[in-house]
Amino acid sequence: MTEIKSTHLIHHPYVAPKEFESPQGALYKASTVIFPNVQAMKDRRWQDKSAYTYGLHGTPSTFTLEEKLATLEGGSYCTLVPSGLSAIAHVNLAFLRHGDHVLVPDNAYSPNISMLKHLLSNFGVSFSRYDPMSLADFKAKFNERTRLVWLEAAGSVTMEFPDLVGLCAASREQDAHFKRTPEHRAILALDNTWGAGLAFNAFELGVDLTVHALTKYPSGGGDVLMGSIVSRDEETARALSNAHMFLGTGVGPHDVDAILKGLQSLVLRYEAQDASARFIAAALMQELAIAEVLHPAFAHAKGHAHWKSMCVTAERPEGLAAGIFSVVFDSKYSAQEVASFCDRLKLFKIGYSWGGPMSLVLPYDILSMREHPGEHLVNRQVVRFCIGLEHSQDLLDDLKQSLALL
Ligand SMILES: Cc1ncc(COP(=O)(O)O)c(C=O)c1O
Asked: Which of ligand 1's atoms lies nearest the C-alpha of 352?
């Protein structure tokens, strides 16, 4: 070698001793993966995750995170993508063909509906929004071309908890009605972000796959975007990993590292944020300005019985729920008054997302988001709260000081 340092600095002979252990595992970074020889380069297969070929196809860090997430959700295979919305897009792109029809709940995470409406329609895919609280409506909208069924529990913003067991069974009944072979039946895809793999076991319902916006609870920091798709069946997993390869949607190593760290405290944070949200929601129910609290663990909530049957167990009689809920203001308050209520909050910050350390608030124009908004939401302002890790009493005091000025 020359005496010029550039080569020495890249091919330095020093090798650190191998024996090293610390609470956090090593972080592996790669676009290029180095093969020991040409034959190894030819022999390696990334599809079955038995070896490494290119950063996009996996590193020890991404494989480790995928295994942990598959375990969390009760599935077998996992694909990591750059955001929760990207996970939804991968499912749509992996399974839909020209002429296919999709069923999506009316209260789904709305960018999924926008994707179907404005992007997938260009490729000859049609969709219908179904009332997640009506099996009859679901069955009526399921047609012979329905290839993909989206499920979400609880629903976005309005928090209705659907009969997931009934919807899965109704989908299989419709498959039988249209005399479909097992490989042609509709794919059941659940957005499992709210349950986070903790509140209930999605795969016991018979869903084919779950998507999870890791951006929320698994990250827990409000600073990382990532999504996952978990499945149990090998063929479903292969379709997803092929879509992932064709689209080239890799995830960054530092983000993977952050999610791996977030998973270590996931259960504690989820439980704490649930308890805090329920404490605050119960207190807000006593406020005159609030007409209704939308949270599936409360007895009056739409779908409370379904939440109870899925999220309450003998070991956990109080059940589990994400730390997120909405309130419906009394009809006498205008959108401007409710916006001012949000602006006056000091601890709650105005922003999208949930599952982070900082409590968030957002007003929603529900009428513009739904085909069939419930009667109770017409002409009323809806505000969603995402409860963080601040002290519950401080958060409640903050809400009360702003309510008092309404
Ligand atoms: C239920 C649900 N699914 C998916 C997403 C999308 O996640 P991301 O923000 O990582 O794209 C969100 C984001 O708010 C969500 O609430």
From this structure: 14
